[in-house]
Specification:
By secondary structure, this protein is α+β, with helices and mostly antiparallel strands. 22% of the residues lie in helices and 31% in strands. It has 2 helices and 19 strands. Strands 15-16-6-5-14-17 form a 6-stranded antiparallel sheet, with no helix packed on it. Strands 11-12-13 form a 3-stranded antiparallel sheet, with no helix packed on it. The longest helix has 38 residues, at 192-229. The protein is elongated, with a radius of gyration of 26 Å. The two termini are 44 Å apart. The model has no long low-confidence stretch (mean pLDDT 89).
């Protein structure tokens, strides 16, 4: 429950983070084996514990918000933008809040180069106004400059989260039917009302469980104290 509260709190903290995908906690139940005794058959029952837990990402699309910024991009389709990590490998994100650095290279808000199908791209003053078509094709006063790289995966559930809005994955495929919107961003898919409701439910369950544990501990202490006073 404590881990569940952490996941919900992280969702709520990123409710305004572009391209953020909400997460939920899932766990595996482990049922303790019971004594195989006919004499106590009616009393025997399975006792459940949490064997292991993991977080799962909800990849549903968020709404699209128009910003008017030239290099803000939103995907109104399946797929992920490809970016280049410092070690040369690729990561993937739905957060299209891009900008150019001092050298004119297109980068993310974290300073990571955005990939085109030909690699990272750098713009100069001669490019003038940059226009990006729905399929990701980049055009400027210098002509066609490239195409934003958008990939997809057979099963997005295999992606590994490595940042608030960034993922790692194997075997990326070219995304089909890309619909890119320039001057817009995809909002977080976190719904505040849903997260607040979950927060209340988990908090109440956590408080109730904590009270049970505390009461049992007090009963145990009273039993030990009482037994210790009994004269042999």
């Amino acid at each position: 429950m404590r881990n569940h509260l952490d996941v919900i709190a992280n969702n709520m903290a990123n409710i305004n983070t572009s391209g953020f995908k909400s997460q939920n906690l899932h766990f595996t139940e482990y049922v303790m084996p019971v004594a195989d005794s006919g004499a106590f058959e009616q009393q025997d029952r399975g006792v459940s514990y949490v064997d292991m837990f993991t977080t799962r990402t909800n990849f549903d699309h968020g709404s699209i918000n128009t910003t008017g910024n030239e290099f803000d991009l939103a995907l109104n389709s399946e797929g992920f933008f490809a970016v280049q990590l410092p070690d040369g490998t690729e990561a993937y994100t739905r957060n299209g809040s891009f900008r150019t650095d001092a050298q004119g290279q297109l980068i993310t808000t974290e300073g990571i180069p955005v990939m085109t199908e030909g690699g990272p791209i750098t713009f100069s003053v001669e490019d003038g106004i940059v226009e990006i078509a729905a399929d990701g094709t980049i055009a400027s006063d210098l002509g066609i400059r490239g195409k934003i790289k958008v990939v997809d995966f057979e099963d997005v559930r295999t992606l590994e989260k490595i940042g608030e809005t960034m993922f790692k994955g194997d075997d990326p495929l070219p995304a089909a039917e890309v619909r890119m919107v320039q001057g817009a961003l995809e909002n977080s898919n976190v719904y505040g009302v849903t997260e607040v409701t979950r927060l209340i439910e988990v908090t109440r369950a956590y408080d109730a469980t904590s009270k049970v544990v505390k009461d049992l501990d007090e009963l145990r202490q009273q039993a030990i104290s009482t037994l210790g006073k009994i004269q042999a």
